[in-house]
Amino acid sequence: MNNLHIVDHPLIKHKLSIMRNKDTGPKEFRELLNEITLLLTYEASRNLPTIEVEVETPLTITKGEMVEDKKITIVPILRAGLGMLDGVLSLVPNASVGFLGVFRDPDTLMPIEYYVKFPPLTEDHQIIIVDPMLATGRSMSHAIKQVKKHGGKHIILMCLIAAPEGVSVVIQDHPDVEIYTAALDEKLNDKAYIIPGLGDAGDRLYRTK
């Protein structure tokens, strides 16, 4: 699993432990997800290409490097992925945003797409797909397939918690995609929820259950 990167920073561990707590309310849950996303983005963007620029300081002219953030596209998987969007945008505010709506059929556990809207994607764009939970991996694999279908090539997947089953599916289907997560949990239960996990991230973000 060379494509899997577990960002086990002490601050991430601390914040994630609070998020796992069943008594943590939606306000704090949203804030913590945003904070962890910031830390994950820092690591996931480590290898972004830069361009050389000329900068005039108060004393002289020098050369610096800048990220071409207009060639970065963030794709949150609706709806829980929206909870990670602002965290990424706070670091790359000029990035484009695409949206993909997918829900999991409760009987077959297969992804069902209900909305897709991407900005123009080219081979030199860096695409960051975000969703808090990588469970079965089928929705993530579907999202990656759609991004590639629309012209994307360089893809990073960023999630809060991953299950081994989901990681295996994504790596098998898309060995060219890098996965960044805050934790690799134990397994999926018989309803395809991550154990120990934190429950349904969308429900906890928006108090829909």
UniProtKB/TrEMBL annotation:
<keyword id="KW-0547">Nucleotide-binding</keyword>
<keyword id="KW-0328">Glycosyltransferase</keyword>
<dbReference type="GO" id="GO:0005737">
    <property type="term" value="C:cytoplasm"/>
</dbReference>
<comment type="similarity">
    <text>Belongs to the UPRTase family.</text>
</comment>
<feature type="binding site">
    <location>
        <position position="79"/>
    </location>
    <ligand>
        <name>5-phospho-alpha-D-ribose 1-diphosphate</name>
    </ligand>
</feature>
<dbReference type="GO" id="GO:0044206">
    <property type="term" value="P:UMP salvage"/>
</dbReference>
<keyword id="KW-0460">Magnesium</keyword>
<feature type="binding site">
    <location>
        <position position="194"/>
    </location>
    <ligand>
        <name>uracil</name>
    </ligand>
</feature>
<dbReference type="GO" id="GO:0004845">
    <property type="term" value="F:uracil phosphoribosyltransferase activity"/>
</dbReference>
<dbReference type="InterPro" id="IPR034332">
    <property type="entry name" value="Upp_B"/>
</dbReference>
<keyword id="KW-0021">Allosteric enzyme</keyword>
<feature type="binding site">
    <location>
        <begin position="131"/>
        <end position="139"/>
    </location>
    <ligand>
        <name>5-phospho-alpha-D-ribose 1-diphosphate</name>
    </ligand>
</feature>
<feature type="binding site">
    <location>
        <begin position="199"/>
        <end position="201"/>
    </location>
    <ligand>
        <name>uracil</name>
    </ligand>
</feature>
<keyword id="KW-0342">GTP-binding</keyword>
<keyword id="KW-0808">Transferase</keyword>
<feature type="domain" description="Phosphoribosyltransferase">
    <location>
        <begin position="7"/>
        <end position="208"/>
    </location>
</feature>
<feature type="binding site">
    <location>
        <position position="104"/>
    </location>
    <ligand>
        <name>5-phospho-alpha-D-ribose 1-diphosphate</name>
    </ligand>
</feature>
<dbReference type="GO" id="GO:0005525">
    <property type="term" value="F:GTP binding"/>
</dbReference>
<dbReference type="Pfam" id="PF14681">
    <property type="entry name" value="UPRTase"/>
</dbReference>
<dbReference type="GO" id="GO:0000287">
    <property type="term" value="F:magnesium ion binding"/>
</dbReference>
<feature type="binding site">
    <location>
        <position position="200"/>
    </location>
    <ligand>
        <name>5-phospho-alpha-D-ribose 1-diphosphate</name>
    </ligand>
</feature>
<dbReference type="InterPro" id="IPR000836">
    <property type="entry name" value="PRTase_dom"/>
</dbReference>
<comment type="pathway">
    <text>Pyrimidine metabolism; UMP biosynthesis via salvage pathway; UMP from uracil: step 1/1.</text>
</comment>
<protein>
    <recommendedName>
        <fullName>Uracil phosphoribosyltransferase</fullName>
        <ecNumber>2.4.2.9</ecNumber>
    </recommendedName>
</protein>
<comment type="function">
    <text>Catalyzes the conversion of uracil and 5-phospho-alpha-D-ribose 1-diphosphate (PRPP) to UMP and diphosphate.</text>
</comment>
<dbReference type="InterPro" id="IPR029057">
    <property type="entry name" value="PRTase-like"/>
</dbReference>
<dbReference type="InterPro" id="IPR005765">
    <property type="entry name" value="UPRT"/>
</dbReference>
<dbReference type="GO" id="GO:0006223">
    <property type="term" value="P:uracil salvage"/>
</dbReference>
<dbReference type="InterPro" id="IPR050054">
    <property type="entry name" value="UPRTase/APRTase"/>
</dbReference>
